[in-house]
């Protein structure tokens, strides 16, 4: 079988839409393995708040890049691209198809298109932005990015200060939007890609998100966050579901308010995910209730 008849099936869509369940059905049908491109699920100390697949789900199909590193490890999208491509290449020695699934648009893009080359930026710009972060807070930097590059503002993980500063330093240092440098490389991958997207009406999606947060609270999210309180300054933990409960545990917010903020911030995250995917015209969208066999039939037609 020639390398060009290898296929990477990318399952995308907003959080809580059902990507994990679909990816397992596809992996079972096509007798293959799953690459997780969800950067929140990489960390072994984070489980409930990142909606890591259950043990039954992990047993149903072989998964890679789920809880494979620690919150104290240095890990970034560049390292992930190298690791993921190495793993995909290895799976392709025996299989003709690999399933990739996840809500981190940048991480999925790194597998499909490779990372982009950015111009070198004067280090004083980053120092100045770090100083603004300390003195004026993340919201100030987010608003600056919104003015300079709306596409990046909608596309990146806004609660990650490193990502916001990286985008801003490119905008300021080059005078051009960070997003204008994306997807400009000519990375040749030895596989074809099929994008499958899951979607739902907004009120249904928001209801699913709210329900998922309630389930996380019932299954022990507070205890999980409490066990990580000592590490709350780490970049990995500056994420929805954890940062709000740190505020509760630190005595800044009451519990009901913290939970309502988790729901609100997760809905905002889903909205940004959808904005990111909208620019990818090759995604074949299906309603989240679509039977897996219908999607399998469509994939087979394309192949």
TrEMBL record:
Q: Give the Enzyme Commission number.
A: 2.5.1.75
Enzyme class label: transferase
Q: Which Pfam families match?
A: IPPT (PF01715)
Signal peptide span = none
Q: Which GO terms describe its molecular function?
A: tRNA dimethylallyltransferase activity
Per the record, where is site Interaction with substrate tRNA? 104, 126
Provide the reaction this enzyme catalyses: adenosine(37) in tRNA + dimethylallyl diphosphate = N(6)-dimethylallyladenosine(37) in tRNA + diphosphate
Identify the stretch(es) annotated as Interaction with substrate tRNA.
Answer: 38-41
What is annotated about its quaternary structure and interactions? Monomer.
Name listed for the protein in its UniProt record? tRNA dimethylallyltransferase
